[in-house]
C-alpha cells in the first residue's frame, strides 16, 4: 500500500507511537502563521546556495544526490563536514556541497557514465570530509550509484529528465516508475500482515524536482499533494518536540540509550508511519484554516516537511534534548 494509506494503517495499530490531536491543532496554527508570513513555500529550495539552478542539468544533479541521500548521523555523534565556498556544511547539505566541489574540480559527477563505473576510492574522494570524519555506508552508496547509473543509461538515455517526462506530470506515476526501475529506492516493510511503504527517497526526489522548478515545466505535477512527508529520522524528532508524536516509555528509553532500531522492526515502522499520518493531519488542518481565512495560500505535506526539517537545523540546541531513532539503512 502507498505511503499515505500505510501511515493510516500503521497509526491505527501502533503500540509504541501515538498521535496527539490537541498538539496537531497547536502546531497547525503555527504552520498557518508561517505560511502567511511566506516562510513555507517551494521557493525555499532554490534559495539555498548548495542547490542547483532550475535548468536541464538540475535533473541529474538531484537524482545523484537523492540516490545517496541517507544516513548522515554517526555512532559517536561526530558530524561529517564539507567546506565549500567558505562555508562548512554538515549532513545533507554537506552532500550537496561535496557534489558541487567535485563539479568545480572537473569531475563530471552527475553523469551516470562516470558514477556507474566508480570504484570505492572514487566515491571516497568525492565525499571526503574536511574535518577528518568519514560518512557511513560508503560501499552501500557505491552500490546504489552503480545500480541507478546502469539503469539510467540502459532505459533513459542517461538522463533523469526522461523519467520525469515519462510520468506525464503525474507524481504518482513517477513514484511508481522510480521504485520499480531503481530497486534501491524501494523502501517497504511488513507490518501486521500488510506490505507497507514509505518511499522516503523516491518521494523526496519528486519533491525536489517540484521545488527546484517551483511547479513549472517538467516540475509541474497535477497530483503533487498526493506525496507525503519524507519519513526519516529528523522530522519525527521535531514532531516529538512539538508533542504531536508521543513515544511509549520503553521506546523513549531505547532511543535515549542510543539503541539501534533495525530497519523494518515494529518500532521503527511505527515511528515512520505515524510521522506520515501526523503530517497528513497537519496538512488537512492547515488547509481548513486557509479556507476559513479566505486567503489563497497553498500548503502540502512536502512544504510542511521542509519547514519542520529546517526548524530542526535552526533550533538544533533545543532539539538535541530529544533523542532521534537510529537505523542503519540505505532508505533514509
Automatic annotation (TrEMBL):
Taxonomic source organism: Cuerna arida
Annotated GO MF terms: hydrolase activity
Q: Which UniProt keywords apply?
A: Hydrolase
Q: Give me any GO biological process, just one.
A: tRNA modification
Q: What is its EC number?
A: 3.2.2.-
Catalytic activity line of the entry = queuosine 5'-phosphate + H2O = queuine + D-ribose 5-phosphate
State what this protein does.
Catalyzes the hydrolysis of queuosine 5'-phosphate, releasing the nucleobase queuine (q). Is required for salvage of queuine from exogenous queuosine (Q) that is imported and then converted to queuosine 5'-phosphate intracellularly.
Highest taxon above the source species: Eukaryota
This protein is called Queuosine 5'-phosphate N-glycosylase/hydrolase
Q: Which family does it belong to?
A: Belongs to the QNG1 protein family.
Q: Which InterPro entries match?
A: Q_salvage
